[in-house]
Design a protein that fits this description.
flat; Arc Repressor Mutant, subunit A; 6 helices; Alpha-Beta Plaits; 6 strands; 162 residues; 35% helix; alpha+beta
Length: 162
């Protein structure tokens, strides 16, 4: 269990590490690391490996929005069925059950603001359990999954003293 916890912490920071690198860093055999990875994937603890990409630097934009959704929970399943249904839409990146005024927080990514509006009006709002929504557009990403999006440029001004 300790090996798995350390491995998960390493992969959370850098999922490109090879089993050989992880074995060296943790002082264990490569075979032990490969077995731990296989076990974590089989048990659905490691669900996948993603790259965090700064699409703005690449020149591709798009619009991300966080949509707060008030829903009517269903008998026996609560919020699970509606959250699962919303999760299936291709625009949806994340769905969270929240405390507070709204029940679900849905993160979407679309080509433009009109596509976000279409998603809400054509797909999300018509769902029977959805009572209301509030949409927040992401204006700028500063940090995501422990990665900073802006490198602070070195101040090249000359220091002037009186």
């Amino acid at each position: 269990m300790e090996l798995e916890r350390k491995l998960l912490k390493l992969y959370e920071k850098d999922a490109t590490l090879s089993p050989t690198q992880v074995a060296t860093m943790l002082g264990v055999s490569e075979d032990a690391v490969r077995q731990a990875i296989a076990r974590l994937e089989r048990d659905k603890i490691i669900l996948g490996y993603n790259a965090v990409i700064n699409w703005e630097k690449w020149g591709e934009d798009g619009v991300s929005a966080m949509i707060d959704v008030k829903v009517t929970p269903e008998r026996e399943v609560g919020f699970d069925r509606i959250a699962e249904r919303i999760s299936r839409f291709p625009e949806v990146r994340c769905v969270y059950l929240m405390s507070g005024t709204y029940d679900l927080s849905v993160v979407v990514h679309c080509e433009d603001m009109k596509d976000v509006a279409r998603f809400i009006s054509d797909k999300l709002a018509p769902l029977e359990q959805v009572q209301s929504t509030v949409t927040h557009f992401v204006l700028k990403r500063y940090k995501q999954d422990n990665f900073l999006f802006e490198d602070k440029e070195e101040d090249r001004r000359l220091v002037v003293s009186p």
